[in-house]
Amino acid sequence: MSRQVTNRIVRPILSKTPDEAKKGVLALYRDFYREIPWTCRSHLLDTPIAVARQKLKEEFLKNKDVTDVRVIDMHVVKGRMTLEEFHNFWAQNYNIYNYFDSTDTQKRKAAEKNNTFLDNFYKSSDK
Fold first, then answer.
1. Averaged pLDDT for residues 63-72
2. What are phi and psi of 22, to 5 degrees?
C-alpha cells in the first residue's frame, strides 16, 4: 500500500506575495517610529527617543532573514497588537522596559548621577 504525496495549499494570513509582506513590515516600522515620541512622553519613560528608535531598529533587524510570507505576516500581526497595547495604555511601563536592556538604563542613570554640578566642581578643585 503506497501513499501519495500531495502538495498542500495553505491560505495566506495577510499577504499573498513577499512584496506585499514587505510593504506590511515597512508600514508597521513607520507606525512604530511615529509612535515612539508619544509613547515615551505619555508613559513617562526615561529612555531618550533616539535610544528607543535604535532599539526599534534592532528588533526589526532580528527578523530580517525570515523569508516565509506566513511567518512574516504573523510577526506583523503581533507587532500591530504590541503597537496597540502601547498606544492604548494596555501595556505598563515595565512591559515597555522589557524591550530595553536594563544595564543600558542603569549605565545612563549612573552617568547622569556622576555628572552633577557638585561632582564636576569637586573634580575641578582636585586638580
1. 93
2. -65, -40
Residue 40's pLDDT band (cuts 50, 70, 90): very high
DSSP 9: P
Instruction: Reduce the DSSP state of residue 25 to 3 states and report it.
Output: helix
pTM given for the model: 0.72
Q: Are 51 and 104 in contact (CB under 8 A)?
A: yes
**pLDDT for position 11:** 75
* 26 phi and psi angles, rounded to 5 deg: -65, -35
d(CA 20, CA 17): 5
The residue type of 6 is T
Alpha helices in 1-127 (DSSP H): 18-42, 49-61, 69-87, 93-97, 102-114, 117-126
DSSP string of 75-104, one letter each residue: HHHHHHHHHHHHHTT-S-HHHHHTTS-HHH
